[in-house]
Amino acid sequence: MSRSVNAREKLLDAAVRLVRAKGFAATTVEDLCGAAGVTKGAFFHHFPSKEALGVAAAGHWSAKTGALFATAPYQQVEDPLERLLAYLQFRRDILGGELCEFTCLAGTMLQEVYAEHPAIAAACHESIASHAATLEPMISAAMQARGLDPGGSSTGWTASGLALHSQVVLQGAFILAKGSGGPAIARDSIDHLVRYIRLLFAAVNASPHSSP
Amino acid sequence: MSRSVNAREKLLDAAVRLVRAKGFAATTVEDLCGAAGVTKGAFFHHFPSKEALGVAAAGHWSAKTGALFATAPYQQVEDPLERLLAYLQFRRDILGGELCEFTCLAGTMLQEVYAEHPAIAAACHESIASHAATLEPMISAAMQARGLDPGGSSTGWTASGLALHSQVVLQGAFILAKGSGGPAIARDSIDHLVRYIRLLFAAVNASPHSSP
DNA sequence: ATTGACATACCAACCGGTTGGTATCAATGA
DNA sequence: TCATTGATACCAACCGGTTGGTATGTCAAT
What we know:
Two copies of one chain form a homodimer. By secondary structure, the first copy, chain A, is mainly α.
């Protein structure tokens, strides 16, 4: 243990940075080592393969983003629906700087390696799904507060489904942002999502019923 | 010209298939040649580089999907809003079979290569943007039919913005589908998008303006 | 005989992974 | 106290298969 938990940590940080910027396949082991300031020997000491690093990087990403969201200001908002909307506003606010600085490692890797490296894909999916799960309590509470059935039998949608839909919008927004070279489209899409959620909860407030 | 427009076309078809399944970097030139039943000589006769094939494949994809959508049944729907919703239903209906059969080549490649191969990324973006543009007339017409301002100054959103948002949802849905191993999440997200659009147009319908 | 459409054979660079070794430290025991 | 042991962390050099790309040849049609 002694001197370096460093090398492993530095490799994971480098992986998050480089893979977000260049993709998994285009990032070579030597790229990683160079960015982390270690040698290839260190790499294969800590990870049995490049694929294993990919899996670990997804976990590292989960931990980092988990900490970011756990301490984000939106968590302090009392009302569940407003907290959810504040979460989306927070997601909107952090869309800045270079593309590779605000896009999602998990979504990027998942899309690229889902067929070739199922283990990495599973780790990425877990990262996205567990983040989505943190939204469910807000949505369920908001539904209950407005007399909606969180199970979905009366609304046609569920708390977990809406939570995943939010992630769908965010992931899709990152793709279009990469295409257009900036976050403007992503902001616009988050605005649409916010508008949707407002309408969802407002609509049922106004009328006792709704179904497809 | 003579004997084979074949090789080039077969290589492009193979590229659409393989790149969707394995990603651009993971698909080797020899994979492509093998799948197309030609040799490497033919490959580099028709394309100066692998990157050039990527660009051409994006164009090929645009042409193929363009034809698919141009002849799709939803085009026959009279009412613009209903036509838009029928389009989304059509997108929902074609989510079947293997993942790589219904996901979008443009979105997959764009996400993977946007930094390393800007030319490919631009072609992919063009593919997505031009498809989104086919939705704009429906949205604008639907807005006008309901007395909305298609420019967005009164609604906070525009026809082109909503068209792009639809693509955002679809692209994001493909990512989550790859993560969960099936199209269920994607269907659910399209349902949310349909519900959003219904609410969007219904909400303004209910307010002081026009009625059918 | 020239050109376009391929095929065959080949190469140099690259890349993931291995090997064999060194530095450091903690625990052990004489 | 200090040599020994063993385990961990790391380094430098190397290896062999793969990959994008090339050089050269063939053949049919103009």
